[in-house]
Design brief:
about 170 residues; alpha+beta; 3 helices; about 45% helix
Length: about 170
């Protein structure tokens, strides 16, 4: 085994490995990278959930619009105007219903789907126009559960809404 000559300059000495300082710097950089990666993953999950809520709102508004199209008699008569209050509806699954009863059944069932799919959901359905052309505006609102954001209007969550219109020709 050869010993390094202490009389040689530092450049001429053979390198014997990494120093403790180099290892600590490497570990620090690796830790920062892993923490940043975890932060990106967390943000990705939050944005994915927000996109899921928007997709559900679009689906639910389309569902109500299709129900309106299928029940034109009640739709033209204003049977689908709704402000979000509780509805007691007949059971149109087991018994025959009139078009007005069917619209109440549709709204009650649809409202249950909206409140089940979106957090703190609010709905409003308004009508404009008169026979033979009526236009309904469907507004679905919900709160995003991001409590750690400082730009929130309520301090605990952000409110979002989706608005769709449906024109019915009789």
């Amino acid at each position: 085994m050869t010993r390094p000559n202490p009389g040689l300059p530092a450049m001429a000495r053979p390198q014997r490995g990494f120093s403790m300082l180099e290892i600590l710097v490497t570990l620090f950089l690796l830790t920062i990278w892993l923490l940043a990666s975890a932060g990106v993953q967390s943000s990705s999950l939050q944005f994915n959930k927000a996109a899921q809520f928007r997709t559900q709102a679009v689906y639910l508004a389309t569902e109500l619009a299709e129900r309106m199209q299928a029940n034109k008699t009640a739709t033209v008569a204003g049977g689908y105007v709704y402000s979000g209050e509780a509805i007691t509806s007949p059971d149109c699954l087991t018994a025959a219903c009139t078009s007005a009863q069917l619209s109440q059944f549709d709204l009650a069932e649809w409202n249950g789907r909206v409140t089940g799919a979106l957090p703190n959901a609010t709905v409003a359905v308004t009508m404009a126009g008169a026979t033979p052309i009526v236009t309904y505006t469907i507004v679905i609102g919900w709160s995003d559960r991001r409590t750690d954001r400082t730009y929130s209007t309520s301090g605990t969550s952000e409110s979002f809404s989706y608005t769709a219109t449906k024109t019915i020709l009789n």
